[in-house]
Amino acid sequence: MSPTAKKSQNPLPMKERIKVPRQLMPEQAAEERAHNFTEVNLGYSPELAQQEALRCLECAKPTCTVNCPVGVKVKEFVELIVIGDFLGAAAKIREDNVLPAITGRVCPQEDHCEGKCLLSKKVKPLGIGYLERFVADYEKRMGTHVVPNVQPTGKKVAVVGSGPSGLTVAGDLIQKGHKVRVFEALHELGGVLVYGIPEFRLPKQIIREQLDYMREMGVEFETDVVVGRTVTIDELMNEESYDAVYIGTGAGLPQFMNIPGEHLNGVYSANEFLTRINLMKAYKFPTYDEPMLDLKGKDVAVIGGGNTALDAIRSALRLGARKAYVIYRRSDAEMPARAEEVHHARQEGIDFQMLTAPVEFLSDGKGWLIAARCVRMELGEPDASGRRRPVPMKGSEFDLPLSVAVIAIGTSANPIVQSTTPGLGTNKRGYIQATEETQRTTRKGVFAGGDIVTGSATVILAMGAGRRAAKSIHEYLTTGEW
Amino acid sequence: MTAITACFDSSEHNHLVGNFAILDRGEPVFKIIHAQFLAPGIKRFVIDAPRIARKQKPGQFVILRIYEEGERIPVTIENSDPERGTINIVVQSAGKTTHLLNSLNTGDQILDVVGPLGKPSEIANYGTVVVVGGGVGTAMAYPTAAALKRAGNRVLSIVGARNKELVILEREMRDVSDALMITTDDGSYADKGFVTDKLRQLIQNGTRIDLVVAVGPIVMMKAIAEMTRKENIHTVVSLNPIMIDGTGMCGGCRVLIDGKSEFACVDGPEFDAHRVDFAVLVQRNSMYRDAEQRSLAEFQRAPKTQASSQEGEHACASIPAGRQGDQR
Question: Residue A296: which of B26, B70, B315 has the nearest Cβ?
């Protein structure tokens, strides 16, 4: 059937569609949510979803799908929403995306599907992320996952890391009939989705449900395994007879600024700060045992302008911080964080100190942080990243009183897998070499993707790599050709 | 995972351990095959952990979590038996978590044990090596001493403890050492004094020393580092910062090495003693000290692992529960 022959199910004429305003996402009031960890966005009702879906212009060449790292068939699932077939819409998304409830919440849609939406030339783009979230949540409420019935191939795949790229690989390959076992270093599955992204942006229950669904499909999970230490890639292949291995171990070591005072008590990396909160529930004392510094009434700053930085400082605010600052050395335009998160953070009262950088952390003389000495910046010529380089302004130093500072300036490659896998090629920054189309490494049968290949990126880019890898692993397992 | 419930229902320590959250995560089961006190407050556990047992090398450690609401703490591996699939860990009661751990017995289970973590000790034939174990640090020093002996070194070992009762692994250390010296702070056993006194004697006697390996309290390792720096004796210490994931992800275990941050879990735990900033290690290990003491006091008043309230979505007082820095 040719797509052009098919009549659209959308009753609205084209020129009417553009007149429908983008449906607002219902959300918790800013003043209320700044004190709790409950999700900020509340989700569309079926009515809102159908109203929003009507706006789709149903482009002949949909840029949304082209710009989606996993290639979700947006036009088709949105049309199913229009006619009220929400479960059909969910199934349509699942053809390309095994984690829709997650991407519907954390994907930077403005950089992908919604970024080139035809509507955005005149009005606001279609709320694709909101719609994706709606159908995924609807499917969950109905409790009707379809578990595909596939013929086993007899092939075994080991997936290292249970973050977004590993889960994508596992979800795709299990549906091809391969046996899949996912190894996770931490005690809880989900990788950055669990230790990194806070409850108010991605409830843990959502991840648990996605994992349950994968278990239903037959994916096996093993926690407490640090591949490279507990078992090596070679042992997995030679002794545990895995036919292929996918490495999706994530970004790894937090970077520090290498400025004086960074070792003071009260200075955290964002990974540690968020891990204590999200994974270890340190703020739920005495129910949980892991400690963290009490933030009530304290002044807290995060250094950095990405999603991790905003997750950290918005968590600090919710834990009772008196002042909560973002210190970012560039300007608004260069901030890498997801637009909606910046918007939400401003609503909640986060104080953005833009064009500012700390040059030293100051001590009380007993090893505890009392302030950050900062300098104001101005933007100079573009640097290697194409963004204008921040240049310190002479004489602009000032001291910002702080009890806790959280450093969120990125990560560098975790060396554990690379250093214990002979013949696994790495680039000069220590990340694993993998071809972009196939995610193949320099070792036969070993694939890699996500942050351990690209350096810190986003959930959806990691999933995109997982998608390509799964396709490529399936080809390899089927043909045996490398 | 009903095994956990069953196990603890039959345990006399049920009142201590309480309700474990039962999660079906397909995770391995870490059963305690044998548990025995080596000294007051210091207990050795033989744990069923086949993957770790196969891979463990001297100098490495595990991170464990006892129950669902528990913290993650790094613990010394004293030994392993790859064929039986077991590892031995040695734990000294210090904070809530270690007290709770030491209340477990044969047949009980530990929710999570992950490892072996850290880089193994660099084993080679150096010539003459002095291995120093202070307190429970002896458990960490022992496998390294044994491996150094097997590699052909002359191994002179010094074991120190506060008193006679707290001297651990004497027989084991003797078996792998060409000479074993023991000191107790109060003189209740062997020679009165500190391990540094013995090391100073060796140096003063003109004993040729090619390497010193020291594992124990930070003050001890710092004192040894200062002594050997003057003599230009290469010295390795095993550092014990507060840690969470143990895989390099969180950066909590960063230590200052020659003024640069390094991570004890992936770059260590062993470092060149002469490059370590011990003052920063002491300071960072004290980060939660006040709260730890309060937490321990509460635990000892009413031993239990869980709060009565499951609420508390909001920020509460942040009080921790263990003294991680004391485990090695």
Answer: B315
Distance from CA of A369 to the nearest CA of B (A): 11
d(C-alpha A281, C-alpha B271), whole Å: 32
Distance CA B263, CA B257 (A): 10
Instruction: Write out pLDDT tens, residues B227-248.
Output: 999 999 999 999 999 999 999 9
Going by pLDDT thresholds of 50, 70 and 90, the confidence category of residue B27 is low
Query: A459: phi > 0 → left, psi -120 to 50 → alpha, else beta; which?
Result: alpha
Task: Name every chain A residue with its beta carbon within 8 A of the beta carbon of B265.
Answer: none
How close does chain A come to B111, measured CA to CA in Å?
9
Nearest CB to B248; choose among A224, A253, A280: A253
Domains and CATH numbers, chain B: 3-117+288-320 (2.40.30.10), 128-285 (3.40.50.80)
Interface of B with A in 56-85 (CB under 8 A): 65, 69-72
The predicted structure's pLDDT at residue A229:
96
Q: In this structure, how many other beta carbons lie within 10 angstroms of the beta carbon of residue B277?
A: 17
B321 burial level (CB within 10 Å; 0-12, 13-18, 19+): buried
Separation in Å, CA of B192 to nearest CA in chain A: 34
Closest chain B residue to A285, measured at CA? B318
| A 376-395 residues with CB < 8 A to B | none
Write the DSSP assignment of A149-208 as a string of letters.
-------EEEEE--SHHHHHHHHHHHTTT-EEEEE-SSSSSSTHHHHTS-TTTS-HHHHH
Specify whether the CB–CB gap between A144 and A87 falls below 8 A: yes
DSSP for residue A3 = G
A and B: number of Cβ contacts within 8 A: 192
Q: How far apart are CA A278 and CA B260, in angstroms?
A: 28
Average pLDDT over residues B262-268: 94
Average the pLDDT over A192-212 and give the result: 93
Residue A276 to residue B266, Cβ atoms within 8 A: no
A287 or B52: which leads in pLDDT:
B52
Which residues from B are below 8 Å from A36, CB to CB?
A: 313-314
- Does A288 sit within 8 Å of B27, measured CB to CB? no
Instruction: For residue A225, list chain B residues with Cβ-Cβ distance below 8 A.
Output: 51, 114
CA atoms within a 13 Å half-sphere pointing along the CA-CB vector of A133 = 24
Please give the pLDDT value at position B133: 97
**Which residue in the block uniquely carries the two structure tokens 């407050």?**
B41
Which residues of chain B neighbour A295 with C-beta distances below 8 Å?
315, 318
CA gap A221, A162 in Å, rounded? 8
DSSP symbol at B282 = H
Q: How many CA atoms does the CB half-sphere of A438 hold within 13 Å?
A: 15
Q: Given a cut of 80, is residue A6 above it in pLDDT?
A: no
Strand order in the sheet with A244-247: A220-222, A179-183, A156-160, A244-247, A446-448
- The mean-pLDDT minimum among A163-177, A208-222, B4-18, B65-79 falls in B4-18
Structure tokens at A272: 């540690």
Q: Phi/psi class of residue B90: alpha, beta or left (left: φ > 0; alpha: ψ in -120 to 50)?
A: beta
Q: Given CB atoms, is A322 within the 8 Å cutoff of chain B?
A: no
A288 touches chain B (CB under 8 A): yes
Q: Which residues of B touch A188 (CB under 8 A)?
A: 25
User: What is this structure's pTM?
Assistant: 0.89
Tokens representing residue A208 in the block: 């648990």
Buried b (16+ CB within 10 A) or exposed e, A264-298: bbbbbbbbbbbbbbbbbbbbbbbbbbbbbbbbeeb
CA distance B38 to B44: 6
Predicted pLDDT at B325: 42
CA gyration radius for chain A?
Answer: 23
> CA Rg, chain B, in Å?
20
